[in-house]
Amino acid sequence: MMLLAKAALGIGGTLVAAGAYTFHQGVLRVDVDEYRSGGSHVHMWVPAAAVPMVMHLVPTRHVRHACEEARDALPLVHAIIKELKKFPNADLIEIVDHEQHMQMRTRAGKLQIDVEAPDQTVHVLCPLSTIEDVTSQLEDHAPGA
Amino acid sequence: MLSNRRQFFAKAILVTATVLLLSPLGALAQSTANQSSSAPATSSASKDRWLHVRVISSDAKGETVRVNVPLELAEKVLPAINKNRLHEGKVKIDDAHVNDVDLRTIVDAIRTTKDGEFVTVQKDDCDIRVAKENNHLIVHVVDKGVREKGEAGKSQVEIRVPMKVIDALFSAGKDELDLVAALHALSAQGDTELVSVKDHENTVRVWLDSKNVTD
């Protein structure tokens, strides 16, 4: 019994540490449902902490290409995210008509984008800190950085 | 007795390990619940100033647009936009002339003059009033004969801008409008309605307050 308890404690402790590290930044969540024949249904949950780590595995030439494409927008995105972190719970944009509903807001330090239309539904939830990490990494790889 | 205590200790460790193991999943579930929750955002600290824009269209689509922007965010983000005439939070204007009207001279004149009505036009199809009241520049336009697609209607525009904001706007160089300075001056103002436009199809409202949600 004692051996079992020690083993459980060891495994449990390791899993807790790994889980806490993986989920300390929250979860990046993407849900896309297209309501048409052959429409795609994407439901993705990714630990936000994993995203910057995965960025290190992307071949440098692809990261550089992405940096060049987004060069003009990166400082702007960085500035917006940095400021949005000061407003963790805010309704920023809402567009409603008889058929569609689009909402962009921050909730608990996460950027939340919801689009509901008759032909598709999109929900994106991404921690602001993750976006900041990714833009920082892209800025570091930018030519002349 | 010793065996009982060992068993109790082992069970306690097992339970603790299980609880610790499940705690990240609990946190995860909580974060998901927060995400799906439709509870309105809590009001931010009163020092935060928010610029709100609301457009309500009464046409067939019945579109409503609500935009809420923290002034602090706009102040910090604007200098990061360098596109066309906008650079470092300032907009370049050609020699401060718009259709041969020297805006800077007009603003200087308005700033130094006392409260009063500067322009009053009353016609069959429209009324225009430009005035300075309580350190606010007020522009009021009523178009009585809007005709679109054969429909007649009334259009009303009311703009109310604090003079300090206009001063800040023209505080940059000769040929520039300083948007960041204007936003900074705006953030020092109390709750106020800046723009109101009403016609038979749309209602537009731009106002400033300390709430991070629209009504």
Description:
The complex is a heterodimer of chains A (about 140) and B (about 220). By secondary structure, chain A is α+β, with helices and mostly antiparallel strands. Chain A has helices at about 1-25, 50-55, 60-70, 75-85, 130-140, and strands at about 25-35, 40-45, 90-95, 100-105, 110-115, 120-125. In chain A, strands 2-1-6-5-4-3 form a 6-stranded antiparallel β-sheet. In chain A, a hairpin with a 3-residue loop joins strand 5 and strand 6 (about 120-125). The model of chain A has no long low-confidence stretch (mean pLDDT about 90). In chain B, the strands form 3 sheets. An 8-stranded antiparallel β-sheet of chain B has the order 2-1-13-12-10-9-8-7. Chain B has a 3-stranded antiparallel β-sheet with strand order 3-4-11. In chain B, helix 2 runs antiparallel to helix 5 and helix 4 runs antiparallel to helix 5 (about 180-185). Chain B is extended and about 100 Å long. At the A-B interface, helix 1, helix 4 and strand 3 of A face helix 1, strand 2 and helix 2 of B. Strand 3 of chain A pairs antiparallel with strand 2 of chain B.
Largest interface: A-B, 47 and 48 residues
Helix-strand category of chain A: alpha+beta
- Total helices of chain B: the number is 5
- Summarize the biggest pleated sheet of chain A: 6 strands, antiparallel
Strand order of the largest sheet of chain A: 2-1-6-5-4-3
Helix-strand pattern of chain A: HEEHHHEEEEH
Q: Evaluate the radius of gyration of chain B.
A: 28 Å
Helix % of chain B is: 25-40%
